């Protein structure tokens, strides 16, 4: 099957052996670089992930004979599974697409690779962005060092990581003023994740304004629901019901509205009443 065809489908439309196909492309030395890059990117989706695929990505990250671009993509694609596979709190570990031993192999190897300064900087950045999802002790210092560097790429990586590592409130608020759009965007997501109330005066106008860059606006709308759920309701209701807004904006507002209402403990009383009636009817059957 042509690897390019997977790009035209949503992940839930992929065949069951998608992970096996990606693995074959990644591990076949005769495959063109462009196809391996695409396979590495697609492999990051949890739908395709399995032990063999995860370890193939890990091997690429540590292989100095591979191109820097492929090593970076392989590292980044390990991020989602590391974030998902929290075996310490997972009630049903059998539902995680990789084994716990594979998880620890990945986290341990990435930690060691990050310490190796001869590894290209972009690859080290990808390693940090992936492994930071697991909350290891060395991440806070690594993020602090990355943020302090006079390098926008490392600064971007640092702010991205601040969404997952606690203790960077001041840096996140500072990054909200960045003129670098990607850093600004990541700071918005981090502010939302940590529910930083001080970020509200900055984020709310971005969510309201049609002049805001679309990606920034989507991030701001998402952040509203966690920063101030109660005050976000009228904004989100207006956006979710608007006929003049972009479809993606409306969809994000609708999803964020559900999140805000959930955090405030709202529920559908009519639905609960219907459930009670159904229970009463069921009880009357016996």
Q: Mind describing the biggest β-sheet?
A: none
User: N-to-C SSE series?
Assistant: HHHHHHHHHHHHHHHH
Structural shape: globular
Tally of helical segments: 16
Strand content: under 5%
Question: Structural class of the helices, strands and pairings?
Answer: mainly alpha
pLDDT under 50 segments (min length 5)? 269-273, 276-286
Radius of gyration: 22 Å
Q: Helix content range of the residues, please?
A: 55-70%
Number of domains: 2
Distance between the termini: 55 Å
Short description:
With 286 residues, this protein is mainly alpha-helical.
Can you tell me about this structure?
The protein is mostly helical. The chain folds into 2 domains: 1-136, no CATH class; 195-274. The protein has 16 helices and no strands. It has helices at 18-27, 33-42, 51-61, 68-77, 79-84, 100-115, 121-131, 139-148, 152-161, 169-175, 181-193, 200-208, 214-227, 229-240, 247-263, 269-283. Helix 3 packs antiparallel against helix 4 (68-77) and helix 13 crosses helix 14 (229-240). The protein is globular. It starts with 17 loop residues before the first helix and ends with a helix.
What labels would you give this structure?
286 residues, mainly alpha, globular
Describe the secondary structure blueprint for this structure.
Blueprint: H1 18-27, H2 33-42, H3 51-61, H4 68-77, H5 79-84, H6 100-115, H7 121-131, H8 139-148, H9 152-161, H10 169-175, H11 181-193, H12 200-208, H13 214-227, H14 229-240, H15 247-263, H16 269-283
Helix pairs in contact: 1-2, 1-3, 2-4, 3-4, 3-6, 4-7, 6-7, 7-9, 8-9, 9-11, 10-11, 11-13, 12-13, 13-14, 13-15, 14-15
């Amino acid at each position: 099957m042509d690897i390019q065809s997977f790009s035209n489908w949503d992940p839930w439309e992929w065949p069951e052996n998608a992970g096996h196909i990606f693995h074959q492309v990644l591990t076949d030395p005769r495959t063109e670089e462009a196809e391996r890059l695409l396979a590495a990117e697609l492999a990051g989706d949890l739908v395709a992930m399995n032990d063999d695929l995860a370890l193939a990505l890990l091997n690429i990250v540590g292989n100095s004979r591979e191109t820097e671009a492929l090593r970076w993509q392989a590292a980044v694609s390990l991020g989602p599974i590391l974030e998902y596979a929290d075996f310490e709190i997972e009630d049903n570990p059998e539902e995680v697409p990789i084994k716990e031993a594979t998880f620890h192999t990945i986290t341990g190897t990435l930690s060691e690779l990050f310490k190796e300064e001869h590894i290209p900087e972009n690859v080290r950045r990808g390693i940090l962005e992936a492994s930071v999802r697991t909350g290891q002790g060395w991440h806070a210092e690594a993020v602090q060092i990355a943020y302090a560097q006079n390098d926008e790429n490392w600064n971007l990586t640092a702010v991205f990581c601040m969404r997952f590592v606690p203790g960077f409130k001041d840096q996140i608020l500072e990054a909200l003023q960045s003129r670098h759009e990607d850093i600004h965007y990541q700071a918005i997501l981090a502010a939302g994740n940590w529910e930083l109330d001080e970020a509200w005066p900055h984020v709310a106008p971005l969510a309201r304004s049609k002049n805001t860059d679309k990606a920034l606006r989507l991030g701001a709308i998402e952040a509203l629901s966690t920063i101030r759920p109660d005050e976000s309701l009228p904004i989100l209701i207006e956006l979710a019901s608007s006929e003049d807004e972009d479809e993606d904006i409306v969809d994000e507002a609708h999803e964020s509205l559900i999140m805000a209402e959930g955090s405030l403990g709202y529920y559908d009383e009519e639905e609960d009443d219907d459930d009670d009636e159904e229970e009463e009817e069921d009880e009357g059957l016996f």
